[in-house]
Specification:
mainly alpha
């Protein structure tokens, strides 16, 4: 997965986790604590992906761009409609 796509997804996850944490009441501090730890892990992952993207190192080599040859396709032939036409009655 490309770094920018991963960063976008991690940002969405982080926002969703923030929303869930806000909705939990103070009566469940153990759940809020677990959610806070998970959010911290997502933040750490974002930082790691960001550092990897900025350093230019990737886990797989980039593929060389290849130019595709243009293929000429002949135009489609007109399809004769079925049914009666004015010419059928005159002929």
């Amino acid at each position: 997965m490309k770094a920018n796509k991963a960063l976008k997804r991690l940002t969405k996850i982080e926002a969703l986790m923030s929303d869930v944490m806000e909705r939990y009441s103070a009566s469940a501090p153990h759940i809020r604590e677990v959610l806070q730890d998970a959010k911290a892990a997502v933040t750490g992952a974002k930082e790691a992906v960001s550092l990897q993207a900025s350093s230019g190192t990737t886990s797989a080599p980039k593929k060389a761009a290849t130019k595709k040859a243009a293929v000429k396709v002949p135009p489609a032939k007109a399809v004769k409609k079925h049914g009666t036409t004015k010419q059928d009655y005159e002929g």
